[in-house]
Design a protein that fits this description.
Number of strands: 0
Number of domains: 2
Shape: elongated
Number of helices: 9
Largest sheet: none
Strand content: under 5%
Radius of gyration: 18 Å
Distance between the termini: 51 Å
């Protein structure tokens, strides 16, 4: 691929991520082309349709979350799950339009499954370290992420709460519920 073509592709993917993160599925390819500073024909030369571009963007987004989980797993097991959930919260707050349920079948299932496997490993590590109660399940962790996504969505759609970051308070409640009472996962909210 020529350098200018590669630069256009990178610019399109970056612009698409920003546009889809903000507007979700309602964003159009024209919106993306405009944000990238290229014409629609340039976009269509790189991506046959919106689905192809969405898949590329979501693959990058979820791959970064896998990297976050992998990094969290390399740290102390008692804080790995908490670190992961806090980072996911930040990512979803900044890019709520990229969450998997918004896109349905376009979400890269194999990467999402990898993310779930890694979050389960983080949970097991935190449980072995005594930081998380033994009765917390991988489904509880998934439900925590769904809940964060819901709080973030309601914040974005309610001007009175916009910027209040209620999701952070909600995450603190979740972490206290997961905690055994003796670790960082059980710290009171500040």
């Amino acid at each position: 691929m020529r350098r200018d073509a590669a630069d256009n592709r990178t610019r399109l993917v970056n612009a698409a991520e920003a546009v889809f993160a903000e507007r979700g599925p309602s964003a159009t390819l024209d919106d993306v082309a405009k944000a990238a500073g290229v014409g629609p024909a340039t976009l269509y030369r790189r991506f046959a349709n919106k689905d192809a571009l969405v898949h590329e963007v979501l693959s990058g987004f979820f791959s970064r979350l896998v990297d976050v989980a992998t990094t969290a797993a390399s740290g102390p097991p008692e804080t790995g799950l908490e670190t992961f959930l806090r980072t996911v919260g930040v990512e979803l707050a900044q890019k709520s339009g990229l969450s998997a349920p918004v896109w349905g079948e376009l979400a890269p299932r194999h990467i999402v499954d990898d993310l779930r496997r890694l979050s389960t490993e983080l949970l097991v590590g935190a449980q072995r370290a005594g930081a998380v109660r033994a009765d917390v399940t991988p489904d509880d962790v998934a439900a925590a992420v769904w809940a964060l996504r819901g709080v973030i969505h309601s914040e974005r759609n309610d001007p009175a709460h916009h910027g209040a970051e209620l999701w952070r308070r909600h995450l603190e409640t979740i972490l206290r519920g997961f905690g055994n009472g003796a670790t960082g996962a059980s710290r009171p909210a500040v």
